[in-house]
Amino acid sequence: MNSRSPRGAVASESQVASGIGAHILQEGGSAVDAAIAMTLAVGTLCSDMSGIGGGGFALIRTPEGTCESLNFRPAAPAAVTSKMYLDKPGVSAVGGLAVAVPGELRGFEAMHKKYGKLPWSRLFEPSVKLARDGFPLTEDMQNVVNIKTRAAGSSDPKSSWVYEHPTLSQWLTKDGELLPTGTTLKRPAYAQTLETIANEGADAFYSGAIAQSIVEAVQAEGGVMTLDDMRAYEARSVEPLSIQYKGHKVTSVGAPASGAVVLAALSILDNFKDVDGPGSVKDAHRMTESLKHAFAHRTLLGDPMFVPGLDAAQREFVSPARGRMLRTKIDDNNVLAPSEYRAEGFETIKTDGRIEVKMDNGTSHVVAADASGLVVSLTTTITLYWGSRIIVPSSGIVLNDSMEDFSVEGVSNFWGYLPTPANYIEGNKRPLSSTSPFIIEDAQGRFRYAGGAAGGSRIVSCNVQHVRNVLDYAMDPTAALAHPRLHDQIAPQETHLEESWDKETAAELERLGHKVVWLAVAPSTACGVSHDPETGEWKAAGEPRKKMAAGAVAW
Predict the structure, then answer these.
(1) Are residues 91 and 164 in the same domain?
(2) 175 annotated to a ligand binding site
(3) Which of 206, 267, 533, 554 has the fewest CB atoms nearer than 10 Å to its CB?
């Protein structure tokens, strides 16, 4: 590699975090090193979205061209039962019973042991410095407080629960007013926590004083997590799923992630050869119908260790044969009745056929790729904004509310979605997630693109469109992310379009039977990295709908 050759590229929802990732690559770190350092930085800067009190999924492509995935999703404490959540609205989202055992650091530990080049402690240094010295309050976080966390049905920014939170109100407000953009925020307790983990390893989080403080904070708020739960947590290596799409291999992460839903939609769309152009009526209609058929299969998903036959089933419903069969159900001139979108042929898996999609807004995605061919596409989440709203006083750790991602028998969640048996609560089980990081390789097996998204159920539709924009329409990361987005998940019976969609196209979609609902801005947040193996050119981009998102090429 000469001095002019790039070392790789990175992307995230934070310009600062992406800069950290690029610097790690410049130091000779691997893509895994960069992904870990970036995610730690995002969790420090964007505590509403991410952090070591959560977990997620990583998709890794090795320099040899094989893909593997890692499940470090938070797990239900051993003692929980579904009865604890019956007739108790909100307990799965706020408080001690909302908290699942965090998995992020065990995931990072497993990745670093296998693919890390720089010392573990080096990856924590930028985040320790940020937390200790301070960083500016961003417009993105202000919007979360003033718009996205305010009381349902209220237009008053001060109706947000953040203004009453014992920790966040002191950190983000003064005299009842949100601090102005650019105000320096510090997290001294969190800095000390990160420094301890940097020096002592992930075990410092899962046993000892940090673990004890987490358990005490959870139990003080009515939870049942124990030190044994913390000590027992392990990241799981899982074989990924892949399909052929338009002459390329697209790989994603299986259940309890939702890569199978993304790949199922793409498997259907692969059968349409007369692509009509991005944003066209035909293209939007077919994509929407494919998404609805794919979401119908999501009723099957849960933790494969608790759902017999699920591994085989999800490989079947992303198969070419099933894609061809479902393509025949799509009529270019009409939508189907809602009951026609169903997972036919999978009656052996327990499901009531209802569609349930939880909203996990506190989520973030990063991508890192290096010149060796090592690629990481990683989604991490604390579920809703600031997770369970429990912030451990002694450590500054924001604890997840991943129990909200489970289903409870007979109970609809806050968003009105009905429960699905494959995702019922059980001790040690990991809840279903919409996350679906992806990697694209060309016909010669060479890396071409990696991406992913945050945004609850919109992750699926965003990732499907992201892949199509790259492969069907030859867009680079910037263009692929900027293109107007749509979303449909069967229930509710609505097709969501960003306001930037052409109004005549929307009118034609309504004529076909879609109920169009306009969104000012799509709620998904994505990023992507591309590589041209012929020219060696790298490109990277962050979400254009967020002020501070960015990609970076490392030289």
Answers:
(1) no
(2) no
(3) 533
The pLDDT assigned to 414 comes to 45
Contacts of 179 (CB under 8 A, 6+ apart): 137, 172, 173, 185
Asked, for residue 429, whether it belongs to a domain, the answer is: yes
Residues 247 and 304 in one domain: yes
- Domain assignment of residue 38, yes or no: yes
Tens digits of per-residue pLDDT, 440-484? Answer: 999 999 999 999 999 989 999 999 999 999 999 999 999 999 999
Q: Please report which confidence band the pLDDT of residue 245 belongs to, taking 50, 70 and 90 as the band edges.
A: very high
Q: Is the pLDDT of residue 126 over 60?
A: yes
Residue 231 is assigned to a ligand binding site: no
Domain count for the chain = 2
Task: Decide: 544 and 482 in contact? Cβ < 8 Å.
Answer: yes
Both 265 and 180 in a single domain?
Answer: no
Candidate list 44, 138, 351, 363, residue with the active-site label: 363
Q: Which domain holds residue 349?
A: 1-100+236-555
Alpha helical stretches, state H, 46-138: 104-115, 120-133
Long-range contacts of 84-88 (CB under 8 A, 24+ apart): 84/224, 85/403, 85/408, 85/411, 85/425, 86/408, 86/409, 86/410, 86/411
State yes or no: is 383 an active-site residue: no
Tell me the pTM. Answer: 0.95
| CA 100 – CA 223 distance, rounded (Å) | 9
Answer yes or no: is 456 a known binding residue.
yes
